Amino acid sequence: MARAVLLLSGGLDSTTLLALVTDAGYEVHAMTFRYGQRHAGEIEAARSLAAAYGAREHVIVDIDLRIFGGSALTSEIGVPKDRDVSGSAHDPAKGGVPITYVPARNTIFLAFALAWAEVLEAWEIFIGVNALDYSGYPDCRPEYIAAFERMANLATRSGVDGTDGIHIRTPLIDLTKAQIIRRGLDLGVDYGLTRSCYDPDSNGVACGHCDACQLRLRGFAEAGISDPAPYI
Fold first, then answer.
1. Distance of CA 33 to the CA centre of its chain
2. Labelling 64: which of 24, 51, 71, 226 has CA 20 to 30 A away?
3. Quick one: pLDDT at residue 89?
């Protein structure tokens, strides 16, 4: 059985990815980060989901990105609400990177995943980035993923010793949110267990107005079903 390292946030995309990779027969080693995010309820969701899908291992990595700040997710900056999240309004090439972008987050996460993959001799790393229905983060784009994969195979022993090297897999990158949801439903994903909101209340109930909520709700509407997650 092939091994894979999978970045699992506990949100809609990474949970769909977990279902896909499990269904494909991989031995999944899931990695979740507690990085000082205000929406830390997603960590418990990830823990439950990793167990439900029979992940071979699930590690929760503690790093504190609050020491840098620079994001509404890791500082006291307010989370934007009711933004236009359609089309070019969140195109990073047009200055549409929102304040919820956490500087270098995916680079940091993938670097940790890369280190673990080398130890495990797992040649595939899965990450649930999406370049269609997303908030406009520059580290979700295909060219970023391709560049990181090139770097990974320059920087690691597995990349230069004659093995297959490391592959960064992004099965969701060209799908709309509705397509991701439909794919997950076909695999039996219970989206009521997932958490996506950037600014939930003290009980983990979603706000319904941040970018993550709006994209999620629009995806469910386009898929023709109601979102089972709790909202204020």
1. 11
2. 51
3. 44
pLDDT at residue number 94: 52
**Dihedral of alpha carbons 175, 185, 166, 103, sign:** positive
- Match 């390292």 to its residue by tokens: 5
What backbone phi and psi angles, to 5 degrees, belong to 13?
A: -70, -50
* Res 96: pLDDT: 73
Contacts 24+ apart (CB under 8 A), 130-133: 130/13, 130/172, 130/173, 130/175, 130/177, 130/180, 131/173, 131/174, 132/174, 132/175, 132/176, 132/177, 133/176, 133/177, 133/178, 133/215, 133/218, 133/219
Instruction: Give the pTM.
Output: 0.93
- Per-residue model confidence (pLDDT) at position 91: 53
Q: Tally Cβ neighbours within 10 Å of residue 86.
A: 11
H helix or E strand, kind and range, residue 31 = strand 27-34
Closest CA to 110 of 90, 123, 126, 133: 126
Torsion from C-alpha of 97, 104, 75, 63, nearest 10 degrees: 160
Helix (H) or strand (E) holding 40: none
| Low-confidence residues of the chain: pLDDT under 70 | 86-95, 162
CB 129 within 8 A of CB 85: no
Structural domains in the chain, CATH included, are 3-223 (3.40.50.620)
